[in-house]
Amino acid sequence: MRSAVDDRNKVAASVNGRPFISYLLDRLDSSGFQEVIICSGHKGDDLLERMGNCYKRLKLTYSKEPTALGTAGALRFAEHLISSEEALILNGDSYCDIELDKLIDYHRAKKNAATLVAVWVPDTGRYGAVKIDNGEKIIAFSEKRGVGHPGYVNAGIYIIKKAFFGSIPEGRPVSLEREIFPQWISQGLAVFRHNGGFIDIGTPESYAEAQSYLTELGEDAMAGQVNTK
């Protein structure tokens, strides 16, 4: 990925002249969210300089870990900034065209403690498949393989009750996908299936694909007027 976007955070990588994260913020803004906590990781100051403290109607708050804490460790570190009883979590390097209001309605109607979005892809090999039972609960995550089969993968979108964050160890790197979710399966990790668009920028190839994918979605290339230089 570094060869494609130099050494900047992937969330700040330029896609059609805009930081990738601005596409995610557009979705949150249009869905009525008011505040976003950005787990900025390394080079958080650079991201703050690029994005500022607000974007459209969104207030942006930054949580910068002193050392890399992994996807789950970053959430635990930012827990004190979350004022609501539950939080919508988005990976900063992927985009899914899911309707967020429908996801939230589903999560609350089912009274889930945690809901993961699984998106259908033609080849699960690069991601690892999500195995789902008939009751819309996740039963397993398969390892990444060179070549996979059609199926559901983790879309990098979750709704999690704040109370669940307490089960994440503090002070060390922790992976949400490899350590925490397998533990939560026994407690009933729910899934919301999505059969729609999905793109990530985790490799130089997928980063290049994101340029045309987000253009095809009709996203406004001038929205936000965020500096990517």
Structure commentary:
This protein is an alpha+beta fold. The protein has a single domain (12-220), classed as Alpha-Beta Complex (Spore Coat Polysaccharide Biosynthesis Protein SpsA, Chain A). The protein has helices at residues 2-5, 20-30, 44-51, 70-78, 100-109, 176-185, 204-216; strands at 14-15, 18-19, 35-39, 54-55, 58-63, 86-90, 94-96, 114-121, 130-132, 138-141, 151-161, 190-194, 198-200. The strands form five sheets. The protein has a four-stranded mixed sheet, with helices on one face. The protein is globular. This is Nucleoside-diphosphate-sugar pyrophosphorylase. Residues 14-215 form the Nucleotidyl transferase domain. Pfam families: NTP_transferase.
**What is Rg?**
17 Å
- Classification by helices and strands: alpha+beta
> What is the spatial order of strands in the main beta sheet?
6-11-8-12
Give the biggest sheet.
4 strands, mixed
Give the DSSP E fraction (strand runs of 2 or more residues): 25-35%
What topology emerges from the helices and strands here?
Layout: H1 2-5, E1 14-15, E2 18-19, H2 20-30, E3 35-39, H3 44-51, E4 54-55, E5 58-63, H4 70-78, E6 86-90, E7 94-96, H5 100-109, E8 114-121, E9 130-132, E10 138-141, E11 151-161, H6 176-185, E12 190-194, E13 198-200, H7 204-216
Summary, kept brief:
This protein is 28% helix and 26% strand.
